[in-house]
Structure formats: C-alpha cells, structure tokens
Amino acid sequence: MFLKCRDGKPHPYLIILASSDSDFPDHLLPVLKDATSSKRTPSLIQCLICYSNDREADIERIGLTKHEEFLDSVGRLQHVREGTITLTSEILKLNQSIQASTEKLAKHKGALVNTTAIRQNIADATNALSESLKVLHALNNSHDLVRRKKYYLALKSLEDLQNEHLVPILQNRYATQHRLADVIQKSIPESQKTISEAVMTDLNTWLFRIRETSQFLGEVAFYHTELRRSRQRKRVEDDQFLSNFKLNSAIELVCDESVEFDVLNNEELQVDFTPLFEALHIHDALGQCDRFRSEYATTRRQQKDLLLPNSVELLADDETSLSSLLEGIAGFAIIEKATMRRVPHLRSPADVEELWESMCSAAITLTSRAINDVGNAEVLLKIKGFIALFVQTMEGWGYSIATLDTFLLTLFDKYAELLKRRFGEDFQEIVSTDDYMPMAINSLEEYEKVINVSWFIQDQPIEELAFPCVLPFSQMYPLCCIDIRNFLNQFYFFSDDHFQHSDVIDETLRKSLDQLLIEKVCQSLVERLSSQYLGQIVQILINLEHFEIACQELEQLLVRARSSTSAGGPLKLKATENFRNNKKTAEKRIFELVNSKIDDLVDTAEYDW
C-alpha cells in the first residue's frame, strides 16, 4: 500500500506496505516516528486524511453500485452482530459462572490446603506423641522394674533409654521432644540414686536377717563339727594309727570327704547371697564400687559391735551365755569368709582377719572377766569344751586360732590351779581321817576293787587268799590312789578334742603331782610322826613305802602317757625321793620310840619293889 497526496501522486517520502490489516500498525509506527523526527507531521496527517476520504469514497461507490448485495451483507452482518451479542452475553454469563466456580474452587483449595496443613500438623504431633510415649514407656518400665525389685534390669533400662532415645533427641535441637528429653535426662541421676537406695534397702534387710541368723548358723556349724568328731573317733577305734591325726588335718579331711555338708545350704538353713551380689552389681554399674565397699565394711563393723554383749555368765545352770556368744561369732565369721570367697574384691583377707581378731579379743576379754568368779574345775572344763569346738569349727574355715590357743593356755593354768586346790583338800581330808591301821578286806569283790585302783602287787595268788584278810597299808593309800588317778584323768581331759600344748600338760601335771604328793600327802604323814603311838608310826612307814612304789609306777605311767612333743628320756618325780627320805625319818622315829620304851622298861626294872 502506498500513501498518496491529494493530487493523486505518491507521497515522496513515506511508503507503507501492509500485507494485512494486522500488519498495518507495525508499518505505521515507523512512519509516525519518521514524520515526527523530520517535522513532517502536518503533511502526514494531510495524507492520512486524504487516504481516509478516498476509502470512504470507495465504500460509497460500492454501496451505490451493489446496493442489494450491500444491504444483504449489512443484514447478515447485523444478524452476525446479534449472534455475537448473544454469544457475548452467554460468554459473559459463562465467565461469571466460571469466576464463581473459580472462587468456590479457590475456597475449596484454600480449605484443602488448610486441611493438608492440619493433617500434617496432626501427623507431626502424632509422631512426636508416639516418640514421647516411647520415651515415657521406657522410663515407666524402669520404674516398674524397680518396684518388682529387678534393679539391674531397671538400671539397664535407663541406660537403653539414654542411648536409644534421649541422646539422639538432644543432639537434634529442632526435635519436638527436645524439652521432654532434657527434663528426663536431668532426672536420670535421681532415678539411678533411687535404684541405688532401693537396692541398699534390700541389702540392709538381708544384713539384718543375716545378723539375726548368725547364732543359728554357728549352732549348725558346731553341730556339724561335733558329727565330724564322732566320725573321727569311730575311725580311730577301727584304726589306732589315725589317732595321730587331729580334726582338720589333711588325713581327717580326706577320710571325711565322702560326707558332703554345706553349712550355708542345708535342710536346716539356707543363706542366699543374691541381694549382696545384686547390690554389688548395681554399684559396679554405677561406678560406685569403692563407696559400696566402704559402706558395707562400716555396716559389718557395726553389726559386729551389736553381736558382742557387755558380759557373759559362766555360772548359770543352762550355760547358754558363752555358747551363744561363740555361736554368734562363728556364724558372723563364716558369713565373712563365704563372702570373701564368693566376692574376693569386696572383702579383703586383711579386713576379714581384722574383724575376726577383734571378735576373738572381745570374747576372750569377756570370758576372762567372768572366769575370775569360777571356782569349779568342771565348769572350766565345759568352757574349754565350748572354746575347743569353736576353735575346731573356725580352723576348718581357714581362720587363725593362735589367739584362742594362747587363751586356752591361760584357761589351763586356771584349771590346773583349781584341780590342785580341790585334790589338795581331798588328800588332806583322807590323811586326817585315816585310822592308820592295816586295811581289812572282807570279800574277794572288795579285794579286787582295792587292787584295781592301787599300785600294789600281792605275792600270794588270789586263789590262796582267805577272807577276811588284811592288807599292809591303811585305808588312806587306796583312797589316795583313786584321787591320783582321777587327778591324772582330769588333767588329760583338758587335752581332749583340741589343745595344742600337750607338753605343757605333761610338765604341769608332773609339777602338780609332785606338789600334791609332797605337800599334801608326804608332809602330812611326816607331821603325824610326832605321835607317841608306835603302831601308828609303823603304819605311816608302811604307807610311805607304798607311796614310794606308787610314785615309781606313776613315773612309768607319765612316760607312757606324755605326748610326742614333750622331751624324751626318763621322768623323775621329786615325790619319789621325798617319800624314800621320809621313810628313814619314820624308821628313825620308830627307833626313838622303841628306845624310849626300852628305857622305860629299864627304869621300871631298876625300881625297888
């Protein structure tokens, strides 16, 4: 398309080419820009006006030449316009409907978005609640285990709670359970303390029951030792060679190993160490072993102090005071030794020995204080029996018995003094009440009794004896022989069961016999030599001769009875020589009396009748 001027000539400067109406603005814009820049805007406007007029003229010409077609086109165009208006109205309605639907859809979409967010929040809250419930369930499970007294499982549950739940949550600062985990984490030490206190409460209950059963445990242990004694005596009866081996010796233990007996677990008594093991395990897991050992040692020392009474009664008829004390100490010490064997790192040998020595020293102090009031040798022998049973029982558990053995020596010295005092009084009474006449025997039975207790050899066979008969010594001799034999037996009774100082018994017995025979028998007889009755002096001489024989027999008897630890060689009693020397004194006294009688007879013969 060319723009032309009014005169019909093309515009000299502007040419616009347009292939379609839609391209027209694209071509018009450069023309407008050029006209503006070249200041030809009026000329361009004039050209455009001319172009518009020309186009109107063309339309008018076409309308005049083709009127019907034009009208028909206008009608159709009008119809199209009406359809277009109708269509536009429908489009507007549709647009309004779409807008309404879009608004509704937008609302639904907003609601859906809100619902999705809420659902996500609910899901997050559910997950957070589920994780929190897991944490709380683990915590409650730990507390429930404590209530059921499963302390180690409770402690393990707390550890799992920390490692599996709390630590991962606390490491994530944005975790929803962070605050809950922090609160529970801070409560873990208190929960561990609760477990520790609960297990210590159970342990203290166990320790109280153990203390209450200590005496019964000691009684069971003593009974078991007594049974071992009986079995050993039976074996010695069957084989005398076994008499060389005492209780708790290797040979005795081997011989008795076929009899199984657990003092801590039997029909009468069962000691369960589970509370102790559990408490130790818990404190080990908490890293508090040193504190637990210290508290346990303190508690046991306190229980030891409660075990010991202020005094013991040795003169009571039931004799339970000392035995109860020793049974309680034995039970306590057995528990200590059993604990040390089961848990070596809890109770050291030094701690156990210290407690043992402390209890032994206290028992010895109490017994020594009470012994001062004892004046009966039989009571002391019973006391020694209790202590010997106690010593043999505890020696079997590996305890040192040196302190108790030393105390038995002290007890033996007291026992020997009481025996000497009692038999000294008996000898004095026998000597003072004797009739100093040859002893008359009325029957064979009476004769055999006297011969069996006396050191006397009859030259004449029993079959040739005629009763009644007379023995050369007076009645005091067999009575003293009976007392001497009883005195020997009483001394050796002390060595029964347990006494590791047999040489002391041998030496003390020798000295005591010498003292009794010299001071209570020989000296008493010598004092009666001042009598003016010749028959009595002669009887004293005969008695002294038989006592000399008795002393010689006693020397042989003591040699045979003395222990292997005593010094070898011959044994001499000073009383033997004393009786021998005083025989001469008696003979001299007889000569004095005879000479006195002769002098009296001579004086009578010289009398002037």
TrEMBL record:
Positions of the Exocyst complex component EXOC6/Sec15 N-terminal domain: 52-222
Residue ranges constituting the Exocyst complex subunit EXOC6/Sec15 C-terminal domain according to the UniProt record: 404-609
Transmembrane regions listed in the UniProt entry: none
Gene Ontology cellular component annotations, sorted alphabetically: exocyst; membrane
Entry-linked Pfam families: EXOC6_Sec15_N, Sec15_C
Domain of life according to the entry: Eukaryota
Entry's Gene Ontology BP terms: Golgi to plasma membrane transport; intracellular protein transport; vesicle tethering involved in exocytosis
Gene3D superfamilies assigned: Exocyst complex subunit Sec15 C-terminal domain, N-terminal subdomain
Full protein name: Exocyst complex subunit Sec15-like protein
Organism: Ophiocordyceps sinensis (strain Co18 / CGMCC 3.14243)
Lineage: Eukaryota, Fungi, Dikarya, Ascomycota, Pezizomycotina
